[in-house]
Amino acid sequence: MDRSSREPDDPFAAEARGELSPRVARALWWGSAGLVLAVLGTSVLVAGTDQGRRLPVALALVLAQVCALRWQARAPVAVLAVNVATGLAVWALLPVVTLTGALLAAQVTLCVLSATRPRRVSARALAAMCLPAPLAFVAGGPARLAVYLLTVVLAWTAGQWRRAQRARTRAETRRAVVEERARIAREVHDVVAHTLSVVVIQAGAADDVFTERPEQARQALRAIETGARSALGELRLLLRAFRPDTEEDGTGEQREPGPSLARLDELADTVRAAGMTVHVHRQGDTDGLPAAVDLAAYRIVQEALTNTLRHAAGADEVSVRVTTEEDCVQVTVIDNGLASQGRSAVTGSGRGLVGMKERTRLVGGSLRAGPLPGGGFEVAARLPVERAS
Question: Which pTM was predicted?
Answer without folding.
Answer: 0.49
